[in-house]
Design goal:
Blueprint (H helix, E strand, L loop, with lengths): L1 H8 L4 H38 L5
Helix pairs in contact: 1-2
Length: 56
């Protein structure tokens, strides 16, 4: 949130803004990896749960 706040409030040089933007992109990519991993674990857990159920 600090990256966004600093970009939104202004007063940062062009170089500083670019560095903050790059940091934001890196953080967004990391968050996406975490979300993808969580989704994969959830999908695997749900698939395992479905495999253990008897047909009705």
């Amino acid at each position: 949130m600090d990256v966004v706040r600093r970009l939104e409030t202004g007063g940062v040089s062009l170089e500083g803004s670019l560095a903050l933007w790059e940091r934001g992109e890196a953080l967004a990519a990391l968050c996406q990896q975490w979300l993808d991993g969580a989704r994969a674990r959830l999908d695997a857990a749900l698939a395992g749960d479905d495999a253990g159920r008897s047909p009705e």
